[in-house]
Structures are given as C-alpha cells and as structure tokens.
C-alpha cells in the first residue's frame, strides 16, 4: 500500500483549509497513493477555548458538509481519505476521525477516547470522549484510528491489541506550550518514546501532525511519520514544513 501523509497549514479560514486538502488529495492520487491521511481537526484546527458558543460551532455532524464533500472527492479521485474532524452531536462535541473509501463509503468513524484534547475545557456535557476503538477491513488493509494521545492510552491500546489492525492511523494536532518548532527537542524527548510504543503495539503507525501559527492553535509544529510494527521509522517529514510524503508501507 502507498500512503500519502499530508501536513497542510491550518488557519482560521475553513474554506482555505478545505482547498488545501482538495489539492493534496488530487496530488496524492496522481502520485499513486491508495490512501491520504490528514491531521487531527484538519478542517478547522483544534482551537478550543472553553466557550461553548465558540467550541460547539467548530463541530459539524458526521456525516455532514465536510464528510459529504470528501466522499465525493474520494469517488472522483479513486482514493481512500482519512482525516480528523470536530464532530458535533446534539449538544456534545467529539474529537473524531473518519475513513472514506474510493467508492464513497464512510468506512470508519472514531471518537477520540483519551481526554487530553479538552484538558483545559471543563463542561463534561459538551466535551465528550468515545468509548470504542473499532477497526475496519479494506482491500488495502485493516485500519484503526488512534488520535494524538490515544496512542499512549492503555485503554485504547488494549482494544487495538484485540482487533489486530494492520495499520493505526494517528492524526495529531500537537504543539509545545511555548509554540516553538524544535526538531531537536522532538528527537531528544519524543522520538524514542514513539518507537518504543509502536513496538509494544506491534502495529504499523502512520501519523501526521497539524501545522499552525502560535496565535491560532498554539503553534502546532507539523511533522509526519511512518513507524513499522518492529519499531523502525522509515519515513518522516521534518517539523515546520507543509507538504506531503508518499510512502510504501
């Protein structure tokens, strides 16, 4: 399988975010990718501020306008599309991700289980977490999602071990508190931790992180990785760069 990992610059203009994603899907298909992966909250950015009027309006139903849009794009481009989206379900908000088939089927919807995405937001009636980590079989492999910190959540890991997916899709919106882009810090503080965790899970992890400005989303720093089940990283995109890599996995 060839997978395209996309890091696009996410900002306050949702239409521009979608335009960048559209271009990346088309480019990925032309490059021979079978699947294209975008970051967490790829259409809006993960920009919660604990104001229900603001935060709930970031979300939309799944399926809703964005998912319907990418269903049509998956069909016309003949490619699987996976991306993170803030999902509004009634008065609740979930940090979700979806996988769409080239035939336009919504193959998988996952709601993030690890609560760290809303650690500064305090209304449990609004900020909600999922309880299940399903996997789905496709012609290109069996997939499950683990959004950002889910990868290190033991409850999520236990469910992943039960379903035995071939690939874990890991969309992220990660930043340092200072809003810095520091590749050396990633190498020293995080890289080996990721390698060890993937080796524990014994499942290939494909991840891509959002790229934003400090004033917008705290300065998500980008980066993309493919780490195989044996704990070996074979592909990566440096922090601070927008772009995409197409990897055979």
Indicate the topology:
Blueprint: E1 2-7, H1 14-30, E2 35-37, H2 52-58, H3 65-77, E3 80-89, E4 92-100, E5 106-111, E6 135-138, E7 141-145, H4 154-163, E8 167-172, H5 183-201, E9 204-209, H6 214-217, E10 224-227, E11 233-237, E12 243-248
Parallel strand pairs: 1-2, 2-3, 7-8, 8-9
Antiparallel strand pairs: 1-12, 3-4, 4-5, 6-7, 9-10, 10-11
Helical percentage? 25-40%
Structural class: alpha/beta
- E-strand count: 12
Main beta-sheet strand count, sense and barrel state: 6 strands, mixed
What's the helix-strand series? EHEHHEEEEEHEHEHEEE
| Structural shape | globular
* Unreliable segments of 5+ consecutive residues: none
- Name the beta content range: 25-35%
The averaged pLDDT comes out at: 96
Going across the major beta sheet, what is the strand order?
5-4-3-2-1-12
Distance between the termini: 6 Å
Question: Radius of gyration from the CA trace?
Answer: 16 Å
- The helix count comes to 6
């Amino acid at each position: 399988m060839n997978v395209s990992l996309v890091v696009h610059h996410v900002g306050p203009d949702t239409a521009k975010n979608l335009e960048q994603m559209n271009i990346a899907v088309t480019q990925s298909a032309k490059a021979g990718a079978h699947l294209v992966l975008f970051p967490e909250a790829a259409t809006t950015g993960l920009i919660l501020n604990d104001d229900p009027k603001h935060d709930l309006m970031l979300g939309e139903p799944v399926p809703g306008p964005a998912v319907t849009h990418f269903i049509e794009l998956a069909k016309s481009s003949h490619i699987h599309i996976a991306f993170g989206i803030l999902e509004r379900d009634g008065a609740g908000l979930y940090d979700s991700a979806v996988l769409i088939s080239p035939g336009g089927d919504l193959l998988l919807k996952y709601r993030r289980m690890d609560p760290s995405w809303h650690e500064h937001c305090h209304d449990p009636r609004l900020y909600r977490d999922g309880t299940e980590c399903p996997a789905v079989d496709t012609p290109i492999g069996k997939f499950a999602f683990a959004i950002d910190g889910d990868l290190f959540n033991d409850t999520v890991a236990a469910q992943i071990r039960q379903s035995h997916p071939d690939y874990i899709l890991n969309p992220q919106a990660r930043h340092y508190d200072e809003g810095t882009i520091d590749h050396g810090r990633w190498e020293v503080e995080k890289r080996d931790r990721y390698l060890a965790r993937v080796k524990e899970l014994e499942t290939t992890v494909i991840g891509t992180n959002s790229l934003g400005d400090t004033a917008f989303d705290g300065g998500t720093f980008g980066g993309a990785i493919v780490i195989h089940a044996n704990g070996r990283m074979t592909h990566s995109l440096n922090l601070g760069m927008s772009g995409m890599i197409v990897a055979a996995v």
